[in-house]
Amino acid sequence: MFDEEEEEPLAAIPPHDRPRERLRRLGPGVLTDEEILALVLGTGQPGRSVLATARSILRQTGGFSGLAAMDVTRLERLPGIGPAMAGRLTATLEIWRRAGTTSAWSPLVDDDATSRIVVPELAHRSTERFVVIVADRALRPLEVVFVRDGGDTPVQVEPSEVLQAVLTRGGRSFAVAHNHPNGTLEASVADMAITRRLGAGAATIGLRFLGHILVAGADWRRL
């Protein structure tokens, strides 16, 4: 539920001090988190300004890091966010993630290189997610592809889903990763089984399987 603290209506703020005008006049670096989020949201809720809506969302999620860890379904459940707004936020966060990582990717010559891609992607998620890093013959990453979410249960993936994702994107090599939201780096029987099956499946169609990374918070291990 929204907090009931007193708020200043956006209309009561002098025009030159409103988020959009401050952005144009001073640049994005001077904006507060709630002002940035307010610009993304565009509108508030009935009886609440967009700034108050943004402030409440940030309090509920613990800031941008918590917001970035939420998938679109969980965002839709937050008071003040419907399907359209949840979709807009998810797309905006994905732009930020891609812009901040793609240019920094290095060839997948070892597990450290793979971890530098997948740990930021998976470390703060509250549910399990399985991704594949598609790479070319020279091990240069082409794309990180979301394969499947586990929801409230461990993620279940078939090798065919992963191999198809690699082939349809022109990949010649690939690595996979998933996270354990409970913070444990202990691999399950299913984790080890999918790793073996992916290795065998890749070999039969001429793809190079580079390994499986398990992420738990900021920690990781190879399976």
TrEMBL record:
Keywords: Hydrolase, Metal-binding, Metalloprotease, Protease, Zinc. It comes from the Bacteria. Residues 107-223 form the MPN domain. Residues 1-22 are annotated as: Disordered. One of its GO terms (molecular function) is metal ion binding. GO terms for biological process: proteolysis. Pfam families: RadC, UPF0758_N. Belongs to the UPF0758 family. This is DNA repair protein. It comes from Leifsonia tongyongensis. The lineage of its organism: Bacteria, Bacillati, Actinomycetota, Actinomycetes, Micrococcales.
